[in-house]
Amino acid sequence: MDEPTYKIIRVALDRDLIEQIGRDIYFDVVDHDRVRTFHVQKQTPFKLFKVGKLKQISKKAKELKLFLEVEFGLHRGPVSPPVKSMEDILLFFKLYDPEKGELRYVGRLFVNRYAKPCDILGKVNEMAGFSPDEEVDLYEFIGAAETSGSREGPSSGTQTSHMLPRAPSSEEVENAKQSLKECLSDLFKLNMKDRLASALSTLSIAETGLSDEQRSSVLEFRVNFDDFISDYLTFEQDNSEYELQKLQNDLLSSAMKKNRETHLSYKELSEKLAREEEELKKKLEETKSRNAKLISDWEALMAESEETKSKYVSQKPKLAEAEERKRIAEERMSRSTAACFVPGWEKKEKR
């Protein structure tokens, strides 16, 4: 079968990232099978598509995946992209919420390849809608697609290489050696692959500053660079999956612990309320008993009052009768006293 005379160019836009990331947990930047696709004749000059040096890394590949960068001004009109140098790299940021199990795209940012995560943390928080001092965990994710394709040394599509037209200076050699040492001592540094490729490119053409053994090791490492990067990316992907599973496991463990603590708290509160309920029942029984005694005493008082009232009513005629007899007795006594009085008795007594 004849070799195809065209290339397939897949162009992803910002809206593709926003639409695709978040519908489900999709950890790659974008699904290129769901973006706009162009079939371009191989003879078409690359400058027509504004991709520059991509010709060097894609001349052997049938498919070319691109991200179309468009910057908009105040009135949503396209403006010139920011000025970039060979030291700048484009990073895409996604936010994973472990509590909701959601993943969403928050934006992209050009950073210096030698920058540290702390240098961009403020901008990352701003894109995510967090406060500048919010603590977040940053993870570097490299898709498996970066390990595919043909392997043709440092200029292949699996890594970025800086070709130096001249022999590096002693200072550049020392910097490259230090960069190589840092990359190998900590494989999880930001943009390790590009730094490692740049250091190997510099050291491979260095005329001074390296021993024969070091030069031989650098050349051998450079020859096996693609295999190393492939193994590294596989390891990093597996490690990312492990970290994700570990994070989810920790979250579930934390949730179980929290639920257990809440369960114990509810149990203690339930027992406390049960005790209070018993105390209230006792108080209620005492109150009922006192109320029953009060009603009984009240009824006795009412009966006694009725009896007293009845006696009072029956006593009134007797009082009137006694009063009448007393009046009659007083009148009789008065008449008796008058009858016994002797006239002149007082004069005789005076003499």
TrEMBL record:
Signal peptide: none annotated. Keywords: Coiled coil, Ubl conjugation pathway. Residues 146-175 are annotated as: Disordered. It comes from the Eukaryota. Residues 51-142 form the Ubiquitin carboxyl-terminal hydrolase 7 ICP0-binding domain. It holds the Pfam family USP7_ICP0_bdg. Residues 259-339 form a coiled coil. This is Ubiquitin carboxyl-terminal hydrolase 7 ICP0-binding domain-containing protein.
